[in-house]
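Q: Predict the assembly, please.
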Amino acid sequence: MRDNMTNQELADLIFPNINKTIEDYEEIYPERNLKEGAKVVRFAPSPTGFMHIGNMMSATINYVLAKSSGGVFYLRNEDTDQARSVEGAVEFIYHTLNHYGINPDEYEFDGNIVGNYGPYIQSERMEIYHTFIKHLISIGRAYPCFLSSDELNQIREYQAKSKKRIGIYGRYAKFRDVSNEEAAQRIRNGEKFTIRFRSEGDFNRKFIFEDLTKGKIEMPENDIDVPIMKSENLLPTYHFAHVVDDHLMRTTHVVRGEEWMSSVPLHFELFKAFGFKMPKYIHTSLILKKDGDIIRKISKRKDPEALMFYYEEKGYPAIAVIDAVLTIANSNFEEWRQNHADTPFYEFPFSPKKMSSSGALFDLDKLDNISKNYLAKMKAEELYENYLTWAEKYDEHVYELIHKYKSDTVSFLNIERESKKPRKDYENYSSIFSKIWYMYDEEWDRELHYDFGCIQDKDEIVRIVREYLHNYYCETDSEEEWFLKVKELCDKMNYASNMKEYKENPTKYKGNVADFTTAIRVVLTTSSMTPNLYDIMKILGSKRMLKRLEIFQEKY
Ligand code: GLU
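A: Predicted assembly structure:
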């Protein structure tokens, strides 16, 4: 067929209603007026699944890069794969960013656009994408392709079977060189089509690019004519849309998962086709976990800790999760944190070079340790308030109890807290109750398991505790007075109050002062290991302690 039709005419036929030009958009979204070195970064998740730990790592690094350079952190919703979109995913992204305090400077939510470079939801940017696609058609760098899905499947099967590279390139790009007349005729006949990029790359030539973390990378050039606009809904593909957006939103640095690394040659070609400057790239490593003896990629299906729900449900303080993520993101974060305990995390001088390029091992024990430290450093009141907020959402029973007994709970949480070396009992809010439940009388309804210490004879235990509570304990005693009395009774009942004497002659005694206090501890709490007994007794008070002795007697 003779080709009397120009590329521009074909572009007009496909997009008759697009009247804007690329230049118009360059004016609408001008270069940002930021100070030298300020980074413009984005978190650009697709709502095809719930926010996971890999997303969290990208978002946190982006935030740190923007804040530490006086730049901009924006959130872009990449929702062009609408068939795979998951209900609630977008809300969860906003919720999570907010929960961790990594709030974007520019975003769009609930119909509100904040920032001058929006819309920030890709499905609302159709006119922009069509303008840019129209431009590519008009300069001969994109074309309509009429391969049906059956034909595409056949090509893929053939390529797989004959071990050829998968994709539409070379002789598989059947519509790359048909005349504009023929293409126009097919379109007029109502044939379905996608728009493909017309690659000028050569797979046998090397493409070299510099990733800020992984260094110089050599890959073959792209030669695949990827689809840039889908036929069914005229939406652009990720590859195309993100190039347009990263350019128009004036992005300087892209932090994204390693899985996108292999697409860089294609992205480079797309940027080049428009004459745009490419942003700098940081491809984050895969997040790995230790599973028995093997180290493998963390899995959204198999590992609950892969999804961000996990950390909120378990009740880890937000800052502990952020620190854990930054610890695996940058090898010098831990040391920095030791020297800057109270500095906001976003002041950490993040260095892409210090990021592991082979994989980041995420370790829940490490998170527990980080979290224990944060929880130990909180004032009892603050810990209580955070715990209450957590329980309100995740544990009704706990919420009711700690709400009803606020004062006792705060006092208990305060035991051995305000000291140089505070106790580190709790790794997260969900683990607190198993360590404090015995402070609540209501819990004495359940089946009790007394964890005896050295003294196993229950009658002897009853004798000790009864004598002690009736004739020795006094609520107003100081800790010294309290201990003197314990020791006095100890001696009277032939338990050594002096450990040295006991060790020299153990057979002379029924036991020692530690065995003696353990007996009291077990009756009052069921546990042989608790925080300071004096404080626990002060919170419980005589009446409740006598009741617990009664219950102990009844049970045995
Ligand atoms: N929408 C892509 C994803 O969720 C983002 C990749 C990117 O940051 O460029 O994986």
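The longest strand covers residues 206-211. Residues 44-46, 78, 238, 242, 254, 256-257, 260 surround glutamic acid (CB under 6 Å).
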